[in-house]
Structure formats: C-alpha cells, structure tokens
Specification:
The chain is α/β, with parallel strands linked by helices. Helices cover 39% and strands 30% of the residues.
Length: 745
Amino acid sequence: MNKILNINLGGIPFTIDIDAYTHLEKYLSTIRRHFSDSESCDEIIHDIEVRMGELFQESMKGSSIISNKELDEVIKIMGTPEDFGAEAMQDDYETTSESRESYTSRDNQKGSAKRLFRDGEDKVVGGLCSGIAAYFGISDPLWIRITFVVLLFSGLSPIIYLLLWVIVPVARTSSEKLAMRGENINISNIAKTVEEEITELSKRITEIGKDLSSKKKSDGNMDGNEEGNHKKRRNFILRAFAGLFALVGSIFSGVFGIVGKTGKSIFKIFGGLLAVVLGLLFITIIIAISVSFPFMKYIGPDNYFLSSLGGLSLYLTLGIPLFFGLSMIAKMLFGYKTKTNWKRNLGTMWVASLVVGAMSIGNTVNEYRVSGSLSDTYSKSIDNEFINIKVNGDHQNEISMINFFDLQPTSEGLYVDDVHIKIVRSNDQKVHVTKDIISRGQNKKDALSNAGKVMAEIEVQEDGNIIIPQKFLLPKGENYRGQGLTYILAIPIGKKLGFDRATEHLMYGSSFDNSQSRPHNESAFSWEMGSNGLFSEEYNKKANYELQIPVDQISSLFIEGDFDIDLVQADAASISILGNQDLVNNVEYSTINGSVNIKNNNSRYNRKKLKLQVYVTQLAQLNLEDVHYTKLKGLTQENLSIYSSGNGDITGVMDIENLELNLDGHQSIDLMGKGENLDVQIGYNTDLNLSKYLVSNATVKGELHKRGKLNVEKALNCKENTLRRLEVIGNPTISDTSNTMEKVN
C-alpha cells in the first residue's frame, strides 16, 4: 500500500504516488540547480513542467495515478540530467537500462513529429507563412509569402490565408515551437529555445538603446562633415521605408486580427451548429434503430442470435463515426481530447461491427435468394346481377400502431399490408377466385414453404358481396420473406360491379375496356363486365367530355397550357376541347374579332391530357406557350407566323409561301411540305428538323445548341456559329458565313 498526492504540473492536475513524487521532485530540483545561473531559469522550468504534463496525459493509458512506470517513460523522452551535462540525481530510484540510455542515441533513433503552427516570432501579419516554411523545412519564409502574393491575383489567397489563420494555432510554448520545427522536445532543446528567446529579447532592447543614443548624438552635432550628412540622409530614408512597412504591417495585422477574431467566432458558431446537427442525427439513428429492432427478427436471418447481433452492429456502425465527428468538433472548439486507448477500442469495435453486419446481411440475402409462387382457385355461382367488392378492415383494431413499411406485429403474429386485387373477364357464368401468393427463400422448397404460411381468406357470398382482407397474417414464429398476395377475380360478362375507395387502392392490373385507360376515381361509378373488360357509360361520358367553343372565323390563335392540339385546314372554323369533364371545365377561353385565346389552368403534371381539335379556313398567327404537342395538317396559304415558347413539339404537313417561326425554350420542330420564304428565329435548345420542308430562301437567326437540318434551294442567310451546327440540304448561296458548313447534295 502506498500514499498518493495531488499535484499541479504545468497547470494540469495529476494524482501521483509518493515514490514517484519523491523522484519527480528530485528530478526537477536537479534540473533547477543546473539552470540556476541562467536568467531564464524560471521560464525553462515552467516549459519543462508543461511538456511533462502533456506527456503524462498521453501516456496514462487509462490509469488515474502516476507511478514509477509512467514517470520512467516520461524521463526516457525528456532525458536524464546527465544527458544535458547536469549532475546526477542523488536518488536510490532504480531505472531500467533503457531509461539510462543516452538521450543522444535515442535522438538518433526517433525524432519528433512535426506539427503545423503559426510562428509568432517571425511574422509580418499572422506568422502563417513562417509556420508553413518551418513545417516544410524551407529556410526562408519569403518564398511562401511570395506564393500568397501571387495567389492574391486569383482571389483565393485572402480566403485561404484567413481560413488557415483561424484553424492553425500560434506556437506559444517552447514545446510547440520545437514541434513546429520537427525537433525533439526534450530538456536540452527546451532550455536552448528559452535562452535563445531571452537572448534575442535582450539584443533587441540593446539595439533600441543604441538607436536612441545615436539619435541624440546626431541631433547634437548638426554641423558635421558632408559624409556625416550623407549617412544621416541615408539612415533617414531607411528609417522612412522601415516605418512605412511597419505601418502597412500594423494595418494588415489589425485588419486580419479583427477578421480573424470574427472568423473564429463564425467558425465556433458553425462548429456548434454542426455539432448540434450531428448530435440530433445520432439521437435520430438510435431511436430509429431502437424502434425498428423488433422487426429485424422478422426480416433478418432465421438465427435469432445472428439477427440480434446484426441489429447491434447497426448501432455501432452508424453511431461510432458520428461519435468521432462530435469528438473532433469538441477538440477543435474546446480543446477536448479523446484518449488514445478509447479511439483504438472504438475503432476495433467499429471494424468488428462491420464484420458482424456483413455476416448478417449475407445471411439475410441468402434467405431471399429464390422466388416461388402458389396458386389456389375455386369457383362459385352468383345469381345476383350486381356484385359488390369491398375490403375488410375489421381486424385493424388488433394491429399495432408501430409500422415498419408494410409490416405490423401483433400478439397473433405479423400482419403484412401487401394485398392486391385484379379483376378480369370470366369465360363462363361463374365467379372464379384465384389466390396467388409469391414468396422467397434459400431454395425453391423454402420459397414454397414460406408462401404456404400466408393466412388470409376471401369471402364470396351468395348475395353478391365479395369481401377481401386488407392484410394477410404470418403466424407467430414465422418470418417475413417477401410474401405478397394477389386475388384474381374473374367476373362473368353482363355482371354489374361496384367497389369502394379502399378496394380501388388495391386494384392492380385490372382489365378495363380497351377504349379507356385506367380510370380515375373509378369507385364513384357503376361498372359492368363486357367482352373487352370493365366499362361504364357514366364514366365514358365524364372522361370523354367535349366542349365546343363558338367561333365564326379564326385569324389568330393564342394557346397556353398543356394541350395536345390537332390543327386542320377546313371549309369552316370550329374549336373543340376533349377530355375529363372536370379538367375541361377548368379551361378559360375568349373570342374577339377572329382572335381566340385559350388557357389551360390545370396542373401540367395531371395524368389526364386535354385534346384541342381546331379547324381553320385561313390562319395568320399561331402563338403557343408551354403546349405539349401540336400537329398541323394540310395548311395551304400565303402567310403564317408561329410563335412557340416553353417546352413543346410541333409537327405537320403544310404549303406556306411565307413562313415565320419564332422559337424559344425546349422546342422540337419537324415539318414537311414546301414554301418560298422561311424566316426562323431559333432558341438555344431548339431541335430543328426542316430537311423535308423545301424552301427557296431562308434566314436563320439565333444560335443552336443542337444540330439542325434545313432544305434550301437558292439563298441562305445565317451566322457562322449557327451554320456550323446546321446540315444544309441543297446548294444555296450563303450570306454572312464561312465555308465551314456541311453540305449534302
């Protein structure tokens, strides 16, 4: 049993046993006696204690008390008094042969790792350039300063300098100054550094005194000879330049000091916010994994122990990197240091968690390797003309409120929300119900076995009601292996059907009349099974609604919104809007003296497109904005101007003597026919294909991003940059261009 003491070494509190304390006290006393004749004795001893305190912190390795073992390790690094010429300690402390080894020989074996600091003693602004030069072993920091000046013209230098100034600390203690130069941090070097600093300070004070004395003598002898006057003028010029550079340095130092303090504050705020985000993310992951942990026994490996280990590995795999991130931020902001053994142990745990997680994932993937399916069909006659299909959700009260995707555990087992309904035509007058179950497993046998564990029963009643369970059950003790259930209902022709909203949501791949796409909100209508699938007269009227816009003539047509347009030349003018009644009723239109404006107020992403059927006798102007597709049929006239913006495609066949195209946005133009003159204003993203529209003369304005095609016989006026992307069919005369075009004869 040994006594312990609490001491303060270099400003750091430690607990030390009495034997180690006795030797430490004699060790420091011997060093103090050796440097007692030096003016910097107190500074040397202080820096030595600071360095020893740092070494004790690094070498404790989880121990809370400094013993002879830890002290011996520190003395190995710092050196014994004999190593730097001091007298030997009068101590009966037994050291190992390794600790008695000469520090010089240890110095030749291992040097101190360099660290990046700012050099506060050799600075112009912040000492960063001097610190970088010391780190890379560059004798003169002038070259680093020149590099920052050169980078100044790129605009990066101030930002980089400011960021490094905020991040890189200044070397204040002797230990930090030695680490900055990569020298061993031992007693000899610490003493040497402190004495050099004191000597340099004394030298500067002496020089200042000499300068003041010289100035007084110079002021008292104003009538000196010419050589003396020349020296005075030269010294005055040098002092002026020195003062100027000192002033500039002070200004920059003050500005960067303010910016540096502000930057440090911003850095701390940003680091604090990042720490809060990482902390919240850490908590979120822990909660999410904790909530989903019970489900892992259903979706994970059959081996419950391996499944539990896999869940635990998730905690460690995701949590340890976040913990390291938080510790790094704490170190940067508050100087908090994580012990080396903690880092090593956590790193080992993280690697182990990766291995366990990989094993668990590999085992789980193997459980889903092969698919299989089971089908069971039975038939029943229903005399009732009307069949009502509905979903049974009565068991909903038994289901847990905690859901994991489609899985819901209960005391009975695991409910799975993966049920679908498919309605098709029956080939006879009976209702045929097929229960189709899919599943996965390690092999075909396991997959079929897992499919057979699904518990769900459909109820077909004689009064025409078909009741389908909303979820199926996997009994307690059975695992989820991708099971899914589809009920295929074959309904006889002529039977009328009705279903609710819940049933509509489960319908998948049902057969509807070929004239219809999948209906929207189909549960609101009555349906009947026909030879081509389900149809509804009521739905057809609503889905294929037609609105006639009253017009006598159409000279100008302005259309905005997501339409599919058929524009045809005919003997009489008319406009019809076709589509879902609710969408058609949301279209605005107006007609004034042959000018027609039509605007689609429905969302562009509505899955139901509206069709616009337009018949014109003569059309002078067509203006399109965000129109999905426009098809022009059989237009034959003298003049036509088309303006199109946004996203849209325009195709057609026409014979226009003077055609003007003004295109902006993502436009695709593909025309066939002929004309005399073509004037095209193209946008950057226009896809222009007029290879089958033959004209005599063409003018193209704007620049193309994509390649385009033109068919011109006589003359083409086009900029050189645009022409480079045009394939010109024909042999026209080129104006305002070079000979870099591609020709196809």
